[in-house]
Structure to design on (86 residues):
């Protein structure tokens, strides 16, 4: 089981911090648990494309919902980047 608690979010600087608790149960008894501080940073589509480009990646394709070369238009879509670095 995973219990996730959002501790901090900063929309301007694009990061969040979660406290996660993992629990392992067997036959109704708690066997083990683990606590984790989980920092998360995110990038916009174009921001990430520019980072890839700046670090030497070429031939970039951005796809959404596993539809090749279909640029994302909704926040709910799964975004995939494909790029080559020589």
């Amino acid at each position: 089981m995973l219990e996730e608690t959002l501790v901090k979010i900063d929309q301007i600087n694009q990061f969040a911090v979660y406290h996660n608790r993992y629990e392992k149960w067997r036959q109704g008894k708690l066997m083990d648990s683990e606590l984790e501080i989980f920092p998360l940073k995110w990038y916009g589509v174009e921001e990430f494309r520019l980072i890839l480009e700046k670090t030497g990646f070429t031939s970039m394709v951005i796809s959404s919902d596993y539809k090749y070369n279909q640029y994302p238009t909704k926040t709910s879509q799964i975004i995939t980047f494909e790029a080559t670095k020589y």
In short: The helical segments are 45-54.
